[in-house]
Design a protein that fits this description.
alpha/beta, Nucleotidyltransferase, domain 5, 5-stranded mixed sheet, 10 helices, 10 strands
Length: about 300
C-alpha cells in the first residue's frame, strides 16, 4: 500500500509519496492548482501530472495500490466551490481512492500529528485553523478581496498604497519609493498605474511577491516598512488569539507559509501581540504527511 499526500496551496502544489510505514519516498512541487486562480483543465493537468510522476517511481509492482489525500485552498463552506473542487479531483484522480480536505486542516494535522493545536498559514493569503477535541474552527481565510489581513498579498498591496501616498506627499517619503521603482524597472512613479493594470490586476501571486521587498537591504530600518510589518503582525496575531480563546489551557501554535521567511522584522512583533496562553512551536511534519494521517484516521 502506498499513499500520496498533496498540499494544494495558493502558491504551489506539493506532492509526497509515502509507503505503508509512512516513510516519505519522494516529494515534488508543481505550480498552484488553486481553482479560483487557474482554469479547471489546468488544475486537472497539474494534479494528474503530480500523481503520474510519483507513481512512475514505484516499480516493484505493475499496478500499485495507491490512496490519495489532498488538502486544497478554498475547500470549505462554499458549496459551489466545493462542487468545483470535487469535480476536478474526480477527473484528476480516477481510478484511485481519494479524500479531500482543506489545506489548513492538513497543515494542522501534520504539525501536531493529528492532535489538538492551532495552525496559522501566512503566504499569498492567510488563515488560521484550530482543532479542539476533534472539532475544527477557522478564522480568517476570506480571500484577498474581503480579508486575508497580514498576508503576502495584503503586504504587497500596502506597499503599493504607501508608495502612492509618498509620491503625493501625503506621507513622508522614504527609500521605499526608489527601491520599488528599481524592483519593478519603471522610470517614473506614475508608470506604476499602467504596470499594475498590465501585470498585477488579475495576478494575486505577483502582488504577494511584492512583499519580498520588505527584506531589501536598503529598507532594513525604513519606518514605513516597519509600520506595514507591525500592522501585518497584529492582524495575524488577532487571528491566532481569537482561536486561542477557545482553549481553557495553554495551546501550541505552528506557523506555516512563505511569509515567515521575512524573519525577525515580522516574527518579533507577532510574538509580542500573541496572548500568553499560546506557545509557538515548530511543525512536526509536512502538510502532505498530515493529509495522509487524516485519511488513515477517517477509515
Amino acid at each position: 500500500m502506498y499513499f500520496i499526500g498533496i498540499d494544494g496551496g495558493g502558491t504551489s502544489t506539493d506532492f509526497s509519496l509515502f509507503d505503508s510505514k509512512m516513510n516519505c519516498l519522494k516529494t515534488i512541487q508543481l505550480p498552484t492548482c488553486h481553482v479560483s486562480h487557474v482554469e479547471k483543465e489546468r488544475a486537472i493537468k497539474i494534479l494528474s501530472k503530480g500523481i503520474d510522476d510519483l507513481i512512475a517511481i514505484i516499480n516493484d509492482i505493475d499496478l500499485p495500490e495507491v490512496q490519495i489525500a489532498i488538502g486544497l485552498a478554498g475547500y470549505g463552506n462554499d458549496k459551489q466551490l466545493r462542487y468545483k473542487i470535487e469535480e476536478i479531483c474526480e477527473q484528476a484522480f480516477s481510478p484511485f481512492k481519494y479524500k479531500i480536505y482543506n489545506d489548513a486542516q492538513i497543515a494542522l494535522a501534520g504539525a501536531f500529528n493529528n492532535q489538538d493545536g492551532i495552525i496559522l498559514i501566512a503566504g499569498t493569503g492567510s488563515i488560521g485553523i484550530a482543532r479542539k477535541d476533534k472539532q475544527y474552527q477557522r478564522c480568517g481565510g476570506w480571500g484577498e478581496m474581503i480579508g486575508d489581513e497580514g498576508s503576502g498579498y495584503w503586504i504587497g498591496r500596502k506597499i503599493l498604497q504607501v508608495f502612492s501616498q509618498m509620491v503625493d506627499g501625503r506621507m513622508k517619503k522614504t527609500g521605499l519609493v526608489d527601491v520599488l521603482l528599481e524592483e519593478l524597472s519603471i522610470e517614473t512613479p506614475y508608470q506604476l498605474i499602467s504596470y499594475v493594470d498590465n501585470n498585477l490586476r488579475v495576478n494575486r501571486t505577483k502582488v504577494a511577491k511584492l512583499s519580498k521587498i520588505v527584506s531589501h537591504p536598503l529598507l532594513k530600518n525604513d519606518e514605513a516598512i516597519q509600520e506595514i510589518l507591525n500592522q501585518a503582525a497584529k492582524n495575524l496575531a488577532d487571528v491566532v488569539n481569537t482561536l486561542g480563546s477557545l482553549y481553557d489551557e495553554p495551546v501550541k501554535l505552528s506557523k506555516i507559509g512563505g511569509l515567515w521567511e521575512i524573519g525577525h522584522p515580522l516574527i518579533e512583533p507577532f510574538n509580542t501581540y500573541l496572548d500568553t496562553n499560546i506557545e509557538a512551536v515548530r511543525a512536526l511534519n509536512s502538510p502532505q504527511y498530515g493529509a495522509v494521517l487524516l485519511l488513515k484516521d477517517d477509515k
